[in-house]
């Protein structure tokens, strides 16, 4: 009696279009639902694959989002690396890292596209907010809160986001001449001190 094999799930040999199908489904789902509401299961269903295959290719929903939106950084890798040396100097490390990404990518930086679109497109605004705020800065502020007991970490994260979006808009989109011409170390020092204050300083007026 011939043996009946159960159907194999996961990656099929020679199925070279599977990864792109997942990315196409992810882009559509993230654009319509946003990062938080889009699930790996829903994206896999849209692509016609098993959710385990999505995880095989991309490791996590954040990894899939980074790949789908062609972001130059993965929060799951970046945030622990920024926080690991401790709270002191965290503001400067964060600004140094982001400026290096912005300067290296220039107009190819996908965050610029989201910033440009955010004013008139709620989906773009939500995606920028969820990626920069929830995936990166909320996690940084929460880590600082755990270490030094800083209060209201979500507000601190939003304050940091206001500075980072400000750098993107002022330097890359408005191209304010003095700011665009300023050397990176000057900007790291100025913005770094401000963000450090948002992360660890008092939030009240007293």
From TrEMBL:
The organism's place on the tree of life at top rank: Bacteria
Name of one Pfam family that matches: TetR_C_16
GO molecular function, one term: DNA-binding transcription factor activity
Keywords of this entry: DNA-binding
InterPro entries: Homeodomain-like_sf, HTH-type_TetR-like_transc_reg, HTH_TetR, Tet_transcr_reg_TetR-rel_C_sf, TetR_C_16
Signal peptide: none
DNA-binding region: 39-58
Every HTH tetR-type domain range: 16-76
Entry keyword DNA-binding: yes
Name the UniProt record assigns to this protein: TetR family transcriptional regulator
């Amino acid at each position: 009696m011939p043996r009946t094999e159960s159907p194999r799930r996961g990656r099929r040999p020679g199925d070279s279009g599977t990864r792109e199908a997942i990315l196409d489904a992810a882009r559509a789902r993230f654009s319509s639902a946003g990062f938080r509401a889009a699930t790996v299961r829903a994206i896999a269903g849209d692509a016609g694959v098993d959710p385990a295959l999505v995880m095989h290719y991309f490791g996590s929903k954040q990894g899939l989002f980074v790949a789908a939106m062609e972001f130059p950084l993965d929060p799951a890798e970046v945030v622990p690396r920024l926080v690991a040396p401790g709270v002191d100097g965290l503001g400067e490390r964060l600004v140094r890292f982001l400026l290096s990404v912005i300067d290296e990518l220039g107009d190819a930086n996908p965050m610029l596209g989201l910033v440009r679109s955010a004013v008139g497109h709620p989906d773009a605004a939500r995606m920028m907010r969820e990626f920069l705020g929830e995936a990166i800065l909320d996690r940084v502020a929460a880590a600082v809160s755990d270490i030094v007991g800083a209060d209201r970490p979500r507000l601190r994260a939003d304050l940091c986001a206001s500075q980072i979006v400000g750098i993107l808009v002022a330097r890359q989109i408005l191209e304010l001449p003095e700011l665009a011409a300023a050397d990176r170390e000057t900007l790291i020092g100025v913005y770094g001190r401000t963000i450090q204050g948002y992360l660890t300083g008092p939030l009240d007026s007293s």
